[in-house]
Amino acid sequence: MHHLLSRQVKKIFNGESPSSPEFKDFLEVVSNVYNNYDKDHNFLEHSFDVSSKEFQELNNKVLQLVEEIKIEKQSVEKKVVERTAELKAANEHLVALDKAKTEFISVAAHQLRTPLTAIKWIVQLLHKDSEINLKPEQAKQVVKLDEIINKMVKLVGDILNVSQIEEGRFGAKLKEQDILPLLQNILSTVEINAQAKNIKLIKNIPPSLPALLVDEGQFKLALGNIVDNAVKYTQADGQVSVAATTTADNLTITVMDTGIGILPADQKRLFDKFFRASNALKHDTEGTGLGLFIALNIITAHNGQITFRSELNKGTTFIITFPLIKDNK
Amino acid sequence: MTIQPKKILLVEDDQFLHELLYDAITQTIGKDNVTVELAVTGNQAIEKLNDLKDKLNLILLDIVLPDKNGFEILEYIKQDQTLHSIPVIVLSNLGQPEEIAKAKALGARDFMIKAESNTSEIVTKARAYLN
Questions:
Q1: Confidence (pLDDT) at A169
Q2: What sign does the dihedral B120-A178-B96-A270 (CA atoms) show?
Q3: How far is B108 from chain A (nearest CA, A)?
Q4: Fewest CB atoms within 10 Å of the CB: A35, A237, A261, B78?
Q5: Would the CB atoms of A118 and B93 count as touching at under 8 Å?
Q6: Beta strand residue intervals within A135-220, DSSP E
Q7: Cβ atoms within 10 A of the Cβ of A288, count?
């Protein structure tokens, strides 16, 4: 019998507890309840004891982990600071190198222009005298020489323009300009090349056009490059048409040719610096891949847009849009 | 009564270029109608400007020069009461928008990029200012 129950029975019955079998059975049941209670109690106490220990161990592990993470974090932070400083220094070095490269190109191009000028002017003198003093064959060579010099002058000019764009110094000086004479000037220059290839140059230009805010030199350069390309990449007996239309907000110039077109794979890189489409390279080896890069930068600086659509061996159409001056609306 | 020939000051440090320009100007306009004074450095240009002053009818000015550059010479001209009314055509192989704007802000009437111009175009422009 459970010791507590035994004491209680002695106390209640003064040592003379009933001896009937029913009472003994009853006491046994109660004693079992007491014993079970003790077992449960001991088990519970043991459980609490174990949990507390485990909790302590776990807590210590967590604290240790937190400390390790803290150390790791500090180490990573230090590495990030060091790496950032390294990257910053490397970037500054690259920027300085790029600036030096651009400045070198700019100076070299300027220096190239002086001897080119002398050659160009001497060739012009020869050209002037060729009818009198040169044999027809020599006169032809002088004409060719003149063309070559002009190409070199254009190339040096393009390189200078690109270096200025990259230096952020190619600022457009926008002022209100009558567009019609500028377009006519561009077309009259291109017409000579078109005639030489028997390309029909169609001009759909209205007799009057609204004035735009443009930098005259840059506008002529950008549009000149695009129309020039149209003639350059159109085979003999083809057709180039230049049209100007106005809406309430914009002036749109469309340059459409029946030329070699642009491969779909090349189209997304068309305005990249020095990029030349693969079929363009086969057609004309002398281009620089700078014309459209310069044109895009100029048109963007004029708050304009340039898009194109092209089909291989059928032709390309460039659409250039400039905003009208608000007063002109 | 004889008509006094017009006087041009040509400021150009490259020997080939000043010889070619000198020939183009004197042959086209005629030695009886024009005389060309030459300066090959910035300081020489200032000296010539001071010597010739109101006798000058036109200045053809390069920008990249020894001693003093063309922009400094333009400033000098602009500040001088006699010189500032003489037309200046800049003839340079610079020619980016900011350089052209700077020259014009300093009083240059025209800016021609030498490598992109013919001597005949330069002479035509010079003649227009002389008349």
A1: 76
A2: negative
A3: 17
A4: A237
A5: no
A6: 175-177, 200-204, 212-214
A7: 16
**What mean pLDDT comes out for the span B28-37?**
92
User: How far is the C-alpha of A71 from the C-alpha of A80, rounded, in Å?
Assistant: 14
CA-to-CA dists, residue A142 to A136, A137, B24, angstroms: 10, 9, 19
Q: Which amino acid is at A204?
A: N
Average pLDDT over residues A272-279: 84
In chain B, whose CA is at the least distance from the CA of A116?
B115
The sign of the torsion formed by the CA atoms of B28, B34, B39, B45 equals negative
Domain extent listing, chain A: 1-170, 175-323
Residue of B nearest to A165 (CA): B96
Using the beta-carbon criterion (under 8 Å), do B116 and A114 form an inter-chain contact? no
Tokens coding B2 = 């004889």
Q: What is the DSSP string of A101-139?
A: HHHHHHHHHHHHHHHHHHHHHHHHHHHHHHHHHS-HHHH
Name the residue among B64, B96, B114 with its Cβ closest to that of A160.
B96
Does an H or E element contain A265, and which?
A: helix A264-267
Give pLDDT, residue A102.
77
Assigned fold of A175-323: Heat Shock Protein 90 (3.30.565)
User: What is the value of ipTM here, to two decimals?
Assistant: 0.84
B99's tokens: 């350089």
Task: Out of A17-26, A194-203, A311-320, B84-93, pick the least confident.
Answer: A17-26
Contacts of B24 in chain A (CB under 8 A): 121
Under 8 Å CB pairs connecting chains A and B tally to 61
Record: contact A118-B20, CB cut-off 8 A: yes
Contact A113 B120 (CB under 8 A): no
Q: Which homologous superfamily is B11-130 in?
A: Response regulator (3.40.50.2300)
Helix (H, G, I), strand (E, B) or coil at B39: strand
Is A160's Cβ below 8 Å from some Cβ in B?
yes
If you average pLDDT over residues A245-265, what whole number do you get? 94
pTM (predicted TM-score): 0.68
